[in-house]
Write a structure and sequence with these properties.
13% strand, 14 helices, alpha/beta, seven-stranded mixed beta sheet, three-stranded antiparallel beta sheet
């Protein structure tokens, strides 16, 4: 029987036992609505407050700058649409990049239908935005810049502090989608000097269905969810108390001893990358080799299809992906890889292996043992492979 190796931590991570333990009371006995005033609700209200403080501490923010959402996608939608509509009297121009997550890209497409204009900055072959391009793109009509902190597919980390400084020099708001970054690399909202930042619990050992949006004090942004007075009248809806408590515990655990975790993940990642490049001809690493998420390894293998590769790996007990989990139903090549300049036929042969805290050196050894043979079999079946 094959061993099971989970290498899709960029898509989601397993919930840590300590996180589940913190969540359980609010799924069982402590079921009070945190907005109620009777004693039974006190524990739920306290759990939400504690989690808000935990998230704020992890990000270097104030607790009243943290707002809970249902996911990272909602946080992105709120930041982008809320800032756009609140500031449209100043202008209706927004700047982003070509490699954003679809939560950002589709929000921007919606705004374009509402009369906003969007400039999508290109990236270099490693997936990095050039600060000079941002500087040249800002106009008197620009009201918002939204650029992700770390790419979810190729792992490239963007120079957010430098980009935010350029935006602020022109008095333009700056939002970053940090869903892939939080829990993987240090994130300090004051050092980055961003106005808004999105995160999601299930990317760092927390539950699915809960996220948060950091909104810097004084930022002009519309309410996104209308209804009750929850989240200080900014985001209506009864709080997901168990999820929020889990998020708070997860972000505390994820940011504890982070330098040591980064070093360990980088060691495993580098072993994986070096091993693949040495044993598989016509293989290529996508993204930056220096400014990169510690657990991300993204490859392209010429002459094969990524979907076939994933199925073969799954049959051997390895869970991986060819890109973002949110586009797994699409047959189109990754928009991120195309933006890096890869041709369609090469982008189709992509593989993302994302390492998590639970992974071991033995996991990497197993992948390096089976992957070269799988690639070779698929190439022998491909009409694109030279000699076939």
């Amino acid at each position: 029987m094959n061993r099971f190796v989970y290498l899709d931590n960029s898509a989601t991570t397993p919930v840590k036992p300590e996180v589940l333990e913190v969540m359980l009371p609010y799924l069982k006995d402590e079921y009070g609505n945190p907005s109620s005033i009777y004693k039974k609700a006190a524990a739920s209200s306290a759990a939400v407050s504690k989690a808000r403080e935990q998230v704020a501490a992890a990000l270097g923010a104030e607790s009243n700058e943290i707002f809970f959402t249902a996911c990272g996608t909602e946080a992105d939608n709120w930041a982008i649409k809320g800032a756009a509509f609140a500031n449209q009297q100043k202008g209706k121009h927004i700047i982003s990049s070509q490699i954003e997550h679809h939560a950002v890209l589709h929000s921007l497409e919606y705004l374009e239908k509402q009369g906003f204009s969007v400039t999508y900055l290109p990236v270099d072959k490693e997936g990095r935005v050039n600060p000079e391009d941002l500087k040249n793109a800002i106009t008197d009509e620009t009201i918002l810049v939204t650029i992700m902190m770390a790419n979810n597919e190729v792992g490239t980390i963007e120079p957010i502090a430098e980009l935010a400084k350029i935006a602020h020099e022109k008095k333009v708001l700056f939002h970053t989608d940090a869903v892939q970054a939080v829990g993987s690399v240090p994130v300090d909202v004051k050092a980055l000097d961003v106005d808004m930042l999105s995160l999601s619990a299930h990317k760092f050992g927390g539950p699915k269905g809960v996220g948060a949006l950091y909104i810097k004090k004084g930022t002009k942004i519309d309410t996104f969810m209308h209804g009750g007075a929850q989240e200080r009248n900014r985001r209506a809806g009864t709080e997901n108390v168990a999820g929020i408590a889990g998020l708070g515990e997860a972000i505390t655990l994820a940011t504890k001893n982070l330098p040591d975790k980064i070093k360990r993940l980088e060691t495993l990642r580098n072993k994986l990358i070096d091993g693949v490049l040495k044993t598989i001809p016509d293989s290529h690493v996508n993204g930056s080799l220096t400014d990169r998420l510690p657990g991300n390894a993204n490859f392209c293998f010429r002459y094969i299809e990524g979907e076939a590769l994933l199925l073969r790996l799954d049959a051997k007990g390895v869970a991986a992906s060819s890109g973002s989990a949110c586009t797994s139903g699409s047959l189109d090549p990754s928009h991120v890889l195309l933006a890096l300049g890869l041709p369609h036929e090469v982008a189709h042969g992509s593989l993302r292996l994302s390492i998590g805290e639970q992974n071991t050196e033995e996991d990497i050894d197993y992948v390096l043992e089976i992957l070269p043979g799988i690639v070779q079999i698929l190439r022998m079946m491909s009409p694109l492979f030279p000699g076939n």
